[in-house]
Amino acid sequence: MRSYNKTLYALITILVVYTISFVAFILYSVTNFAFSDFYKRLDLRRDLAAERMLNGKENQKDWSITYLEELNNQREFIVEFDETGNIINNSGFNALLWEKVDKYGATNFKEGNTFYSTKLYQQPGKSYIVGVSAENYFYTHHLRYLQNLLLISLILGVLFVIVVSLLVKRSFIKPIYGIIDEVKKIGSENLYLRLREDNYKGVLHKLANTFNRMLNRVETSFETQKNFISNASHELNTPLTSIIGIADLSLSKDRSKEEYKQAMQKIVDSAENLEKKTNALLLLARTGYEKDTKLNFKPVRIDQIIMDAEMTVKAINERFHIKTDFSMLPDDSMKLKVNGLAPLLQLAISNIVSNACKYSPNHTAYVALGAFDKGVIILIKDEGIGIPEQELSYIYDPYFRASNTQHFSGYGIGLPLARNIIKMHDGKLSVTSTLGKGTTVRIELPTFRPVS
Amino acid sequence: MIQRVLVPTDFTVNSLRIVLEYLENNKDEQVELVLVGGYKLSESISMLLGFTLDDHLAELQHDDFLKGCEIIKSRFKDKVVEMYADSMISKNKRYIRNYLKGRKFTQVVLPDAFEFQEVENSFDVAALLRSQPLALPQVIPVVMGEDERSRHDTLDSFFFRKKWRFSYE
After folding, report:
1. B3-157: what CATH class?
2. Phi and psi of A129, rounded to 5°?
3. Do A437 and B169 touch (CB under 8 A)?
4. For the CA atoms of chain A, what is the radius of gyration?
5. Do B158 and A325 count as a contact with CB atoms less than 8 A apart?
6. What is the mean pLDDT of chain A?
């Protein structure tokens, strides 16, 4: 804010300096003009006076008065002087000003409000200085008036500049204070609050929008971190249950070597799955939502990921059915490549698919995939219990469970986690639902574009 | 030869099913698809001066509709040479005849049963073409079948249609 003020004061100073120099320039030019014009008029009168005095045309005085206007306090004088410059005869000239007179040519000078024009005239053996003096009415009256006028307008102008600048400053700063106040209200306990973008215009609108986007990222990152333990336990529980189940089953009675081998293989598979999930979750926790270069994103085929996710879901619960509609797969398989981490995407999709199966009486999820110009669309649809309309806005909150899910097991972690993962991949996840009829989850992910 | 095909539409994702039905059943020939919606221009002076087809079409085609078109284009990349929207702006018989002739359509797709969504000033192009005693270009009828599944997402209708292939179950 201090540097903001500094800039403002610098601007005011520049404006004031400009105004002052502008005024000074006007005054100088007009004065200059008034002087030179008046001297020109004096010169003319001096020449006429010299003609009259030295060439014996004294009775022609009327002529000059007829055609030339008499100046204010106009007086003519003639001074005769010797070779050393001493005055011999003086008619009406103030001898005190003798120093200012050029004895070898023409001079113009000013003493008080009186202007003088003198010139040397020589006759055999004699030297004269002939001159005319007069008061400059324009200088003494009009120019003074102009001077006062300019001074007043200068003061008013400076005041105007300062007042306007301060008003502009206030109107600039006010909305910024508004943003500051709004941002101050947002803390860790109410990270869901957002700035009201519509209240601001232009750059400030963009600023508010940027703040909100940043808050989105912070909120997601915050939630991810906060719920890491519950996320992890939810995700790690499933393969662990499967490992314990297989081990229990194989230990329940004596079995052949082959059967033990098979059981061990299944356990190893599940353990590997567990390891993958642990790594993925650790990565998620470490990086949050923020897309970081450390995340080793690679181009992956989304159809492959969907199929893997389905395998995972079926492995978790055999009663779950998944019907896949790949009829809209693009001809060009490059369009199915997205930039991402396969284990994370698989985790997100399998979470949604298993939710779809879980909340449907027929335990069936319908999955479809298509590619548009800039990305792929995955639809995961069920004909299950649906989500009450008024609760749709809360479904991304961790731990939130809709009011109609009491008879289903779950922690309310799967969807937020999936959404975080999709957001990490610059994608979008949206849910539409009709209570009692079913739910559709739409995932959009940008297609991988090789850097050319 | 590339066929220029008129496909009636109401600019909803659901109406793209007509395109899909047509593309899935037509032979392997290249097509240029023109999705035509009906829009009755009002006779006010402001409409006469201010109406531009591009703006009108841009307003009608929502994001999901455009995405649907892109999905179709990438699905039938080899078949669909081009795909764009257009509007018929009158029900006048001469206009229709000139429209079909001027745009040089070689095929017209007419769905057997499809309820077009009505918005202000819109009209059903398929019904109009069917009712006109005009010499239409080659008419390709498509069977739409029942649309039973409940829809939540607008793109739902696009996927999960009848006869959909299960690649994996």
Report:
1. alpha beta
2. -110, 120
3. no
4. 49
5. no
6. 83
